[in-house]
Amino acid sequence: MKSFNGKVAAITGAASGMGRTLALQLAKEGCHVSISDVDTKGLAETVKLVKAAAPNVKVTSQQLDVSNREAMYAWADQTAKDHGKVNLIFNNAGVAYATPVEHIDYDKFEWIMGINFWGVVYGTKAFLPHLKASGEGHIINTSSLFGLCAQPTQSTYNSTKFAVRGFTESLRQELDMMNCGVSATSVHPGGIKTAIARKSVASPEIEEFTGADSEQGKEFFEKFFITSAEKAADIILKAVKGNKRRVLVGPDAVAMDAMVRTLPETYQAIIVGQMKKMRDKQIARKKRKAAEKQTQSA
């Protein structure tokens, strides 16, 4: 797909972050957009921004829980009805849940799997017939840097993102064999400056691994968000135009991918060593602060 002008794109998780910037950049290139999210307030703001940026582009919106299969299929059909066709589906919606394996809450595991993985499956299957009917379609599924390498306390998130990667790579090969005019790309963002960490769910037990409580842990992870959502959207859209099978978003994703390829076993020991150092520094910092407080109150 060399141009987005006159095309129709559906985007999940479009109330903020990468979903919003994808909608804006696509609209500026003349692409009509159908956007969805559970956050109706943020979604309405995205609609307003898109209309201001591209007045001649048609934009429709729908409150949607991507883990609801029936709702996803209904949205896909409505998008095709409203716009006359659908060329692209960006399965972008995602959440995060940090916890050691020993303390996984099964309900929360099912929650993150429902959104991050099943939401991608539902979006792919619901829109695929419409993409094929359009004659030129593309499925863009958001995995993660954590779909390339594993991290302590991220087992549930890793599971969803590795699953998205495997699902999408298999899908791409099937589409290549079908020669049906539809392609697929697996997206692997590194640390993107969005609200995903701030909105994430974390169990108190992560302190054993990070030296920080859940709120401090969120602040800690946000320090590694080095790529803007605008830059990420630009990289993703260029990859779609180039029909890439996989796209690494951000220098951290590129570096980690290289390390995992070069050191497929050793990278785990490197991560463990680094996390231990960061945890020990955090614990030492807490002790210093506690000692200073005690001195001041004495």
Question: How is this structure best described in words?
Answer:
The protein has a seven-stranded parallel β-sheet, sandwiched between helices. The protein has a two-stranded parallel ribbon with strand order 5-8. The model has no long low-confidence stretch (mean pLDDT 92). It is globular and about 70 Å long. It is of the alpha/beta class. The protein has a single domain, classed as Rossmann fold (3-Layer(aba) Sandwich). α1 runs parallel beside α2, α1 (17-28) packs across α8 and α3 runs parallel beside α4. It contains ten helices and nine strands.
Strand order of the largest sheet: 3-2-1-4-6-7-9
N→C terminal distance: 70 Å
Helices, by number, come to 10
Say which CATH homologous superfamily is assigned. NAD(P)-binding Rossmann-like Domain
SSE blueprint and pairings:
Elements lengths: L7 E4 L5 H12 L3 E6 L2 H14 L5 E5 L5 H15 L4 E4 L5 E2 L7 H29 L2 E6 L12 H24 L3 E8 L11 E2 L4 H4 L3 H9 L6 H13 L4 E4 L1 H12 L3 H32 L1
Parallel strand pairs: 1-2, 1-4, 2-3, 4-6, 5-8, 6-7, 7-9
Helix pairs in contact: 1-2, 1-8, 3-4, 4-5
